[in-house]
């Protein structure tokens, strides 16, 4: 029999030592954890919190974590707190940190994966995708996911990756920043990989609340940064998108109830739809995307469904089908998804849906990673079980 399980704890105390002691007190009586995750509000003193927690953990327990735009557990979605997950059982984990993300993201990703694989004593090319899975947390405000993913998967494209960007509840883009915890280090402008090896059941999953409309659009012209769609279907991008939805250009911006959040685009890969939502309309009539764009890319137009109901069904139906006897879930919940839930009055319902998840710890993130793709408006999940 092989299993991975998790205990969780949450603290709203302020002083770092008191927080650490409060969290670890809640874990008393459980198995000694092999890995602890620490999801902490950006308002916290991360270095002091890290030091207080690290000093109180067993020497052999690894520690990873990140700043958040909200902390998740089975009781809901919280603000200003610290959520801890303590994973134990039949697994090994190697940690890798890649720095200099904003300077050379491909190299940062490659560096992180190389170090994680070295800790497990495995060549990257020899990693068996059936027994290994990578958890990725990056500094989300560097907007380098697609480049860092190239580095992470450079020597083994079959490896499954899942995670999201360290975040901040600050809404002003000029003031946003993020930090990542790796054992006793707190860092920024970097990417973390936690590479798991296990014979226990596991799955990397993703859940969104969209369905295809049956309409497609083609990105026909992009700017030099490859982040702005200048033309869609040969027409000015924002006006073409608005015309397809039957709304005004002013209605499009993400977070408004009839715009990009309600009707994003998706990249169809096989039978799956990976959400790649537009973000905002710029003064020149172009559309800024969170993802890199290629001219000629065909995207599916999507429509929103029941956000909370589909999330609840994901936890109750899809996840147990994919993971036998699920015992632990690490959750990476899109901050944009949270904004939309708040704008449409669904925030309480989406928070309540988390009580249906197997034991859970996670955070609201700044964009997500799933299956080697940079996506958004999605809940990505790493789940472990027991056989």
From TrEMBL:
<protein>
    <recommendedName>
        <fullName>FIST domain-containing protein</fullName>
    </recommendedName>
</protein>
<dbReference type="Pfam" id="PF10442">
    <property type="entry name" value="FIST_C"/>
</dbReference>
<feature type="domain" description="FIST">
    <location>
        <begin position="32"/>
        <end position="236"/>
    </location>
</feature>
<dbReference type="InterPro" id="IPR019494">
    <property type="entry name" value="FIST_C"/>
</dbReference>
<dbReference type="InterPro" id="IPR013702">
    <property type="entry name" value="FIST_domain_N"/>
</dbReference>
<dbReference type="Pfam" id="PF08495">
    <property type="entry name" value="FIST"/>
</dbReference>
<feature type="domain" description="FIST C-domain">
    <location>
        <begin position="237"/>
        <end position="372"/>
    </location>
</feature>
């Amino acid at each position: 029999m092989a299993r991975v399980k998790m205990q969780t704890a949450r603290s709203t105390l302020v002083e770092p030592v008191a927080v650490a002691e409060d969290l670890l007190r809640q874990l008393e009586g459980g198995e000694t954890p092999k890995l602890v995750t620490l999801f902490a509000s950006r308002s916290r003193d991360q270095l002091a919190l890290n030091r207080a927690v690290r000093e109180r953990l067993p020497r052999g327990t690894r520690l990873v974590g990140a700043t958040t735009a909200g902390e998740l557990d089975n009781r809901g979605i919280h603000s200003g707190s610290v959520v801890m997950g303590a994973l134990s059982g039949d697994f090994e984990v190697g940690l890798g940190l890649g720095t200099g993300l904003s300077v050379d993201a491909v190299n940062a990703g490659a560096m992180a994966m190389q170090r994680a694989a070295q800790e497990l004593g495995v060549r990257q090319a020899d990693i068996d995708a059936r027994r290994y899975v990578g958890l990725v947390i990056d500094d989300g405000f560097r907007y380098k996911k697609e480049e860092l993913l190239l580095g992470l998967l450079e020597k083994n494209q079959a490896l499954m990756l899942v995670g999201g960007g360290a975040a901040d509840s600050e809404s002003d883009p000029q003031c946003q920043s993020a930090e990542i915890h790796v054992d006793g280090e707190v860092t920024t402008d970097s990417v973390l990989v936690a590479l798991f090896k296990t014979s226990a059941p596991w799955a990397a999953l993703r859940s969104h609340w969209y369905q295809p409309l049956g309409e497609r659009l083609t990105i026909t012209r992009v700017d030099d940064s490859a982040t702005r769609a200048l033309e869609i279907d040969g027409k000015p991008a924002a006006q073409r998108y608005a015309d397809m939805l039957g709304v005004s250009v002013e209605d499009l911006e993400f977070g408004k109830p009839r715009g990009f959040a309600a009707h994003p685009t998706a990249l169809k890969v096989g039978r799956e739809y990976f959400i790649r939502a537009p973000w905002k309309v710029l003064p020149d009539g172009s559309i800024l995307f969170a993802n890199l764009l290629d001219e000629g890319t065909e995207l599916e137009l999507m429509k929103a469904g029941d956000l909370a109901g589909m999330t609840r069904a994901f936890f109750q139906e899809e996840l147990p089908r994919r993971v036998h006897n699920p015992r632990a879930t690490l959750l990476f919940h899109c901050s944009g998804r949270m904004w939309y839930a708040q704008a449409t009055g669904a925030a309480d319902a989406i928070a309540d849906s988390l009580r249906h998840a197997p034991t859970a710890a996670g955070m609201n993130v700044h964009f997500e990673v799933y299956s080697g793709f940079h996506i958004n408006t999605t809940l990505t999940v790493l789940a472990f079980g027991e056989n």
